[in-house]
Amino acid sequence: MARPARITVGSREAKTRFGTYLDLARHGTIVTVTDHGRPVAQLTPLPAADDDVAPALRKMADDGLLRLPTLQPRRAEEWPEPIEVTGVSLSQAVILDRADRF
Length: 102
What we know:
Elements: E1 6-10, H1 11-16, H2 18-26, E2 30-35, E3 38-43, H3 53-62, H4 90-98
Parallel strand pairs: 1-2
Antiparallel strand pairs: 2-3
């Protein structure tokens, strides 16, 4: 059996392009993440899905170890209010919108 490919990336690069490295791991590449040149984490491919994976995930959720995803979209009343600001740049409108939170 062939060994999986391995690559090493810095933490900043991993953060910036996480989706890329996640996809590589999904397809068999082992991605080692470093911080200042020292390995701190690995993204590794999971074994092929078995029929008993779903019950194991449900048990972990029941034990409070994880939350299962929900596919329910937000209701319209949960949507954020639109920003209506004229005469300023988009970046200024964002700053004004966030002013009450910082």
